[in-house]
Design brief:
Two copies of one chain form a homodimer. Chain A is an all-alpha fold. Chain A folds into two domains: 8-60, Arc Repressor Mutant, subunit A (Orthogonal Bundle); 70-198. Chain A has ten helices and no strands. Chain A has helices at residues 14-31, 41-48, 52-58, 62-68, 70-74, 76-83, 96-106, 115-144, 154-174, 181-197. In chain A, helix 1 (14-31) crosses helix 2, helix 8 runs antiparallel to helix 9 (154-174) and helix 9 (154-174) runs antiparallel to helix 10 (181-197). The relative contact order of chain A is 0.10. Chains A and B meet through loops of A and loops of B. Chain A binds a DNA duplex (30 and 30 nucleotides) through helix 1 and helix 3.
Chain lengths: 199, 199
DNA sequence: CGGAATTTGTGCGTTAACGAACAACTTTCT
DNA sequence: AGAAAGTTGTTCGTTAACGCACAAATTCCG
């Protein structure tokens, strides 16, 4: 649910933010040291210095905690997007480059420790968040252009873009060949640009 | 009161420890940036991310918070003392060298920003804590030697040693001449050793 | 000087985190 | 296999921290 986007409601309690951050950080630092599957809740609790009951008031289990970890990754993205100089870099692909670079940075420290399951969870979640973000951005842009539609429905397009992105991302991570973030970003562009152009 | 010495009672609540540490750390980092006197409670609260009422449940005011800051400095001392190999380095002066070195390290970052008042508070508190620590150590040692007394009362001796130490420390800080920690420690030894030897 | 603004310290109803205990389940060891 | 050890997820009474509002004291400034 709401990452921290809408200005509605009162802002979150200090304690809530603290506990969440402590747990998220604890998991992150643990993943840097050992495989995700071998990590046990007690370890997270100890490192975060948080009680067991507090954990389960915020997350349903370890996987849920992991899934929420991407907010740190993707959370800062819309800020950069909306704060950009309104120049011309806000196409539907504004997100890809940044994420590719981020993944590239974290590749050797954390990502390879996730294992099949952890990676699947994160990809699923990333897909989820991306769909939402892209859909919003697409709608905003469509509204600027006087609702000119008739092509591909925007929600389908969003799902397509997110899906393709995660696919490429996954392939990139699995692939042994060392490709630069920029190069794989170009690959991604090559795949989806024709579709975008035809719209 | 009790720093964290006695094994009595249940250990402190996580929340208490967290709040205390957050406030202590916040003050410390603020002193690194501006004069102690110019720091206002609100600033400490904001940086520590702690509510106003939480502050006053632990400390009576800003000065009280500062005073409790030395526990970080002196707190680790007894551990080192009791964990030493029981060899022969536990004279009554085991504390001085360590503290001189610590002060030397923090000299340019924090100490000079304390001002008259802040320094006075810290010295007073340091004296207080030292008296207690030295007295305990003196008693322990006296008990080992079959209560052989008749010389200077141990509590007086403790006060004397602490007082002299703080005096030398203060002089060292104020003095323009650059004296090494070891050198000033030797000076301190020279002052009190005769008295100790005559006992 | 004197009013405005800020800072201080306190009170209080609400809520999140605590800690401890628990049954159910999984792992490990022999 | 079967006992011992460890892990998970839940419950519940207690308590610290929250946020907010307030009067008193202090500092700022025209």
């Amino acid at each position: 649910m709401g990452i921290r986007s809408m200005p509605a409601g009162k802002r979150t309690d200090r304690r809530v933010a603290r506990t969440r951050k402590a747990l998220l950080d604890a998991l992150h630092s643990l993943i840097c040291e050992k495989d995700y599957d071998s990590i046990v809740v007690k370890e997270i609790l100890d490192r975060a210095d948080v009680g067991r009951s507090a954990f389960y008031t915020h997350f349903v289990d370890k996987d849920d905690l992991l899934a929420h970890g991407i907010h740190d990754i993707v959370g800062g993205l819309p800020a950069r997007h909306s704060q950009s100089d309104e120049s011309r870099n806000d196409g539907p692909l504004w997100f890809s480059q940044t994420i590719f670079e981020h993944v590239d940075r974290q590749r050797r420290t954390t990502i390879h420790r996730l294992g099949r399951r952890g990676a699947a969870i994160l990809h699923q979640r990333l897909n989820q968040v991306l769909v939402k973000m892209i859909a919003e951005q697409l709608d905003t842009e469509a509204r600027k252009q006087h609702k000119r539609d008739g092509g591909i429905p925007s929600d389908l397009l969003a799902q397509y873009l997110a899906g393709t992105f995660v696919l490429v991302l996954n392939w990139w991570i699995e692939s042994k060949s060392q490709i630069s973030p920029s190069a794989v970003n170009d690959l991604f562009s090559s795949l989806v640009m024709p579709v975008l152009a035809s719209n």
